[in-house]
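Cast an eye over this sequence plus tokens and explain the fold to me:
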Amino acid sequence: MHFLELFITALLPVLKLLLIIGVGSFLAMERFNILGKDARKNLNIMVFFVFTPSLVYSSLANTITFKSMLMLWYMPLNVLFTFIIGTALGWLLVKITKIPDKLQGLVLGCCSSGNLGFLPLVIVPAVCKESNRFFGAVDICHKNAMAYASLSAAIGTIFIWTYSYNLVRIYSCKSSNANKVEDSTVNPLSAPKSDPEDISKCSVGPLVVEGDKTQNNDPVHQLDIEFAKSDGNETVAEKRKIIEHLRTFAEKLNLKKVLSPSTIGTIIGLIIGVTPPFRKALIGDRAPLRVVQDSISMMGDAAIPIITLLVGGNLLKGLKGSCIRLRTLVGIIMVRNIALPILGVGIIKGAAHFSLIHHNPLYQFALLLQFVLPPAVAMSTITQLFGAGVGECSVIMLATYAFAAISLTLWSTFFMWLVK
């Protein structure tokens, strides 16, 4: 295919996305207020609990089998690479531009977590339709594209709500604690009292009272006693340190976020997809329980247009501006749209050279696309949960998504030429 044909093929899915985003911004304007603050809040709840889990579940159950899981083993590793490299580049950006403490978690999260959810679900299948059989027969290409994009969305959701969520939590708590220490140093009598609401934001596990450690029904305390009885040398202290670390990890781990509705939908979808009896009962024209699968698929089909409209409504807040520095915006754009894609090309070509991934052009295109996506929309929700950098996040989203309209088209054109 000539460059112009590749460019048009890559441009059309992005244009479709931009049109729906524009409609969302139009509906969210104060003059119309159809997609106002309350409406966006309610739709976000519906998307989080209903539409996205349905979409991820139905896509995985329909497309993922045990054989395909073995073939796609590299994708989770590829997503991990995007998070690790993005975090490293974000850390360099934080040090170079001297970003304030309260925004460091936001910047690291935006640099590390790409929109692995609905953007691949829109772009990759649309490329099959517009590519004039560049990736093979349209129906087979679309089925494979949904499998790649659904697995990408499922893995991305898990990483965002375990990794990026805790990044923002840790840095927002550090900033809050630093401000309290500074205030108490200036005037010790005016030091703020502990606010239960602030504590709940910073701590994702139950508070531990020191006196509780002496209770006889504490299993960790019982283990300490056993270790003390069995051995009195230095290994006792080491074992106690390990137990304390395990205790701290268990208390900090927020299973409600790890096991979010999308994660649960992912697990169920994978179980049904790779288990033949469940698959025969739910998937296919002759499946006895196909009405259940079809109903869930119908709810999942509503996820992409609703999420895209919400992106347009949320981006409108970025037009009001904030105190974020221009160099910070430029740095995030360079990380997500220049540095990450270049490194991603080297990683994917190296993996293909050493036969870690199969030489399927569509699969390689989906892997490459994961390195060039703008920040995840979930970052807006995460910043709202902790009240840290909400306005700044809106500006970052507006700037990065506006630039992504160009970068996604150009990089997608290059990626299709590269995997041809």
